[in-house]
Amino acid sequence: MKRMALNLSLLLVASVFLLSACTRREMPSDPNAGTPSAAATTSSPVATGQPQSQPSAQPSVSATATKSGWWIRINPSLTTAEAITLQIGTGKLQREEWRVWRAGEPAEFDVPEKYSQAPRLYVRGSVTPIGKFASLCMMYKDRGVEHLSFDDDDSETKSQAEVDPKCR
């Protein structure tokens, strides 16, 4: 009986420890900043391969893309959607929530650093509200790799060497 009580106690302590480790959020790198750091928003893979409804937080976004690897260019003149929710990864089953782009935000932005030089990149976008239109290009350095136009959701996996003439 003592052994069973000890095992249950250890199991309870281990469960509390694991739960606290899973739910802990990274603090912002700047204590005065109101948003979590980019590392906190790109570290939760979607293990089931099913998209979640929204990313947990918006990463800090620089005003301009460095264009030194993979980056995204939204075409604001053709995009009528209020927001585009983006997932990113190396494939459909190895993806994670990334960010939400909203109308009025900078139209060009880099992908997270861990995917910047990936040989193949998976990007999935979905619009809000459904029925509105999104137009964007997956870019690698100085060239367009894939043009995506959709009014619900769309996804592509592309390699660095591919070229799409619609994205100049």
Description:
The protein is α+β, with helices and mostly antiparallel strands and 168 residues long. It is 15% helix and 34% strand. It has a domain at 46-159. Strand 2 (83-91) and strand 3 (94-102) form a beta hairpin. 23% of the residues are buried.
Short description:
The protein has helices at 2-23, 38-41, and strands at residues 70-74, 83-91, 94-102, 108-110, 120-128, 134-140, 143-150, 153-159. It is of the alpha+beta class.
**Which class best fits the helix and strand makeup?**
alpha+beta
**Residue-averaged pLDDT:** 78
Number of helical segments?
Answer: 2
Uncertain regions: pLDDT < 50 for 5+ in a row? 22-62
Work out the number of β strands: 8
Helical residues, percent? 10-25%
How does the overall form come out from the CA principal axes?
Answer: elongated
> Strand sequence of the main sheet, in spatial order?
4-1-6-7
Strand content: 25-35%
How far is it from the N-terminal to the C-terminal residue, by CA? 73 Å
What would you report as the Rg, rounded to the nearest angstrom? Answer: 19 Å
| Secondary-structure element series | HHEEEEEEEE
Largest sheet: 4 strands, antiparallel
